[in-house]
């Protein structure tokens, strides 16, 4: 009579070992040294031009975005024309109504 046990009787499949198996890897090569200067930085020139500002390019337009809201500002160049003057023999437009309170 045999006892239930958990070890395998067949060998592992061929190919690279499964992740997490095998001896731990040794440390890799050291990182390259960072270039550095032993001289102090020069003093700040108050008359030097400011450094250039890098602007990211604008994103492409979204075809699913709603159309932009256009605000119409009434200026003299874009004003509505005045009503025509009354013709002789015609009463003209009615007087404006008083506001309701």
UniProtKB/TrEMBL annotation:
Bias (Basic residues): 1-10
Regions of compositional bias (Pro residues) in chain numbering: 24-35, 43-69, 81-101
Domain of life: Eukaryota
Ranges where the record places region Disordered: 1-101
Designated name of the protein: Uncharacterized protein
């Amino acid at each position: 009579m045999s006892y239930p046990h958990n070890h395998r009787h067949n060998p592992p499949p061929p190919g690279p070992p499964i992740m997490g198996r095998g001896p731990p890897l040794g440390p890799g090569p050291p990182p390259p040294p960072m270039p550095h200067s032993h001289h102090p930085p020069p003093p700040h020139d108050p008359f030097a031009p400011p450094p250039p500002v890098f602007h990211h390019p604008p994103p492409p337009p979204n075809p699913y975005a709603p159309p932009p809201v256009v605000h119409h500002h009434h200026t003299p160049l874009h004003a509505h024309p005045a009503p025509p003057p009354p013709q002789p023999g015609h009463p003209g437009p009615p007087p404006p109504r008083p506001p309701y309170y």
